[in-house]
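Researcher: Let's run the pair from yesterday's discussion. Sequence first, then tokens, for each.
Model: Starting with the first of the pair.
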Amino acid sequence: MSKQDQLSMDEEALFRDIHHHILRQAKAGERIDTETELATRFNVTRYKVRKALSVLSQMGVVDRAPKRGMTVNALGPKNLSAQIQVQMDIANFDIREFIEARQLIEVNIIPLAIRRMTPALLGRLEDAISRIEANAGNSAEADRWDREFHLLLLEACGNRVLQVFSAALVTYFEKIPQNDPQFFLDIAKNERLLLTAIKAGREDEAKALLSHQLGEQVELLQGTR
């Protein structure tokens, strides 16, 4: 969420009221209120309504288009993860709580991921590592593929509830861009070791490797926040 979209406590309360109201309308099959109607209903300015709707649009809850008006999207895992992530931003939790939650969840889904891993997902994980290596000199792109690797591990666990919450945690962490290609080459090397342990079904080794990798990334985050 951009700085201009950060919500004050009063705006957060309005955001939640509008969110609940339009979801109720969608569930009942009713027409979704316009900005003007929402402003009248909640006795606020259209600017405040527009700000709340902008956040809901970022979350994937609504689509807004000229003439067509506003529609509420169906809730799939990706939309749910995006909604949870924006709610986390609004809540302004301590970064240490995110770090602890991410380490606990990601490391402990490894046994499920090993048991439910498919050849197709193994191929996608290997491709993500190759793309990290190929883009080591492009920090933004390499970092994107590193996050994709972790999201694929979560997908492999096969539990959609865990996947929704964990994906929100993973995408919350965006590292400060690194100019040294070796940084991402080292990440790719560690992820190849992790993938080898997963293929061999070595749970303890895989958990230790992932815990070590996340620990290094946490140190980087703590040093830059």
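Model: Moving on to the second of the pair.
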Amino acid sequence: MAAVLAGCEFSGEVRRAFEALGHDAWPCDIQPAEDGGKHLQMDVLQALQVRHWDLLICFPPCTYLCRAGARWWPDKQAEQAAALDLVRSLLGADE
């Protein structure tokens, strides 16, 4: 059984799908769980320190990452930099 962390996920959909396959799955988001199920309500970077995770799946908010909002980026450089820092941190997470 793998320990699965679904970062930036509060719907519970990913947790239920992995649990159905027999894994110990946990969604994590700063927002509360929509379905009232087990959930780590915290920053995903903090959740990485809670335990060893065999699999990390993340869905960072695309507001400042998606090309669809590019025309607003000149006014949102700090927000975009923070979003990119989060993605880089997740990509660099230890195995």
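Researcher: Give me one sentence on the second I can quote.
Model: The mean pLDDT is 92.
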